[in-house]
Design brief:
This protein has 13 helices and twelve strands. It is an alpha/beta fold. It folds into two domains: 133 residues, Aspartate Aminotransferase, domain 1 (Alpha-Beta Complex), CATH 3.90.1150.10; 239 residues, Aspartate Aminotransferase, domain 2. The strands form three sheets. The protein has a seven-stranded mixed beta sheet, sandwiched between helices. The protein has a three-stranded antiparallel beta sheet with strand order 9-10-12. Strands 1-11 form a two-stranded parallel ribbon. Helix 1 runs antiparallel to helix 8, helix 2 packs parallel to helix 8 and helix 9 runs parallel beside helix 13. The longest helix has 22 residues.
């Protein structure tokens, strides 16, 4: 008799399973409602109405106006569009300097690296040992020709939350636009741009149990912005191209569901995170917690098991039916140490033994405790204990 392999998915920070209600909302737009939203006939009007409704759902989820939401292909495009759109506009005013941090998503960091080859200047502000950006460091980096400040809201690898409100208030004093990547934050913490002093904010559908290949960029009314994509007047002339109607509909439904009970989701996910550490403590497993002890996202747990190589542990966990990661999905599969852990000045033995567990829909406490026990057994075996 074949024993059924255990399967526990603990990599929700990389991507999430599609919510059944999201799938149901999308299906008509993969079949009978196939019209182009730019067409004037009934097929087009049906599609246009669906896109408009989803835009309103995304706007309501973050306290914005529908006209401030621009749909994109995902978080990476949203980050790129925020930087390029703002900087191209600011360069017309003679400004060419960017302030960002050393722990940003690669969509921001690699964009900054390329912008440097085009003559823009970038200040990469360091972070604390917990991976947090300090507002005073941002303030000190600002200069006369600063065009944009871009600091992520919550880190995708270690879960540390940055003081975006304080950073935004500093930017307001200098009349500077602020971009924040809130991809990991939405649905876990309240995001309200009516009170949060940011001008551009990135979102991604597949991080909130929506479909892949769709995201959004919030662009505050009055923010100077230039499009990256030309060839059509879609998205208020900010992004040319026929809209991904089914994906947008799914995103609207997903973000609406994700933000309808943020407080409850935070409590549940924080409980799962703590349950894993509590079980390790009970078993006497030694580990090092990476990230901020207090200011962190509830669904991300990054820990180091000194004495065990990350890739070896991940392979053993996968064979045991437990899916987790070494950090950002965009750099998984490489043997390089995470740029986030390097920026935190983590000792090399801790950086090379770090694993990220991330929780979400479908995870129960019994699953998490079981995964903690299996992890402890594997770590002990690999350490020769």
């Amino acid at each position: 008799m074949r024993v059924k392999k255990m399967s526990i998915y603990l990599d929700h920070a990389a991507t999430t399973p599609l919510h059944p209600s999201v799938r149901e909302a999308m299906l008509p737009f993969l079949d009978e409602h196939f019209g182009n939203p730019s067409s004037l006939h009934a097929y087009g009007r049906t599609a246009r109405h669906a896109v408009d409704e989803a835009r309103q759902q995304v706007a309501e989820a973050i306290g914005a106006d529908a006209g401030e939401i621009m749909f994109t292909s995902g978080g990476t495009e949203s980050d790129n569009a925020a930087l390029w759109g703002c900087l191209l506009a600011q360069r017309e005013q003679g400004k060419d300097h960017i302030v960002t941090s050393t722990v940003e998503h690669k969509a921001v960091l690699e964009s900054c690296h390329y912008l440097e080859t085009l003559g823009f200047r970038v200040t990469y502000v360091p972070v604390t040992s917990s991976g947090q950006v300090l507002p005073q460091d941002i303030a000190e980096a600002i200069e006369e020709k600063t065009a944009l400040i871009s600091v992520m809201y919550g880190n995708n690898e270690v879960g540390t939350v940055n003081p975006i409100k304080e950073i935004g208030e500093i930017a307001r004093q200098h009349q500077l636009p602020v971009h924040t990547d809130a991809v990991q934050v939405i649905g876990k913490k309240e995001v309200n741009v009516s009170v949060l002093p940011v001008d551009l904010l990135s979102l991604s559908s597949h991080k909130v149990n929506g479909p892949k290949g769709v995201g959004a960029l919030y662009v505050r009314m009055g923010t100077h912005f230039r499009p990256m994509l030309y060839g059509g007047s879609q998205e208020r002339k900010r992004r040319g191209g026929t809209e991904n109607v089914a994906g947008i509909v799914g995103f609207g439904k997903a973000i609406s569901l994700a933000t309808s009970s943020t407080a409850a989701a935070f409590a549940r996910l924080a409980g799962l995170r703590q349950a894993m550490m509590t079980e390790w403590d009970r078993l006497g497993l030694s580990y090092h917690l990476n990230g901020h002890e207090r200011d962190h996202l509830p669904h991300i747990l990054n820990v180091s098991f000194v004495g065990v190589e990350t890739e070896t542990l991940l392979m053993n966990l996968d064979l045991a039916g437990i899916a987790c990661a070494s950090g950002s999905a965009c750099t998984s599969g490489t043997l390089e140490v995470s740029h986030v852990l390097e920026a935190m000045n983590l000792p090399i033995e801790e950086a090379r033994s770090a694993v990220r567990f991330s929780f979400g829909m479908g995870n129960e406490e019994t699953d998490v405790i079981r995964a903690a026990q299996v992890t402890a057994d594997i770590v002990a075996r690999l350490r020769g204990e």
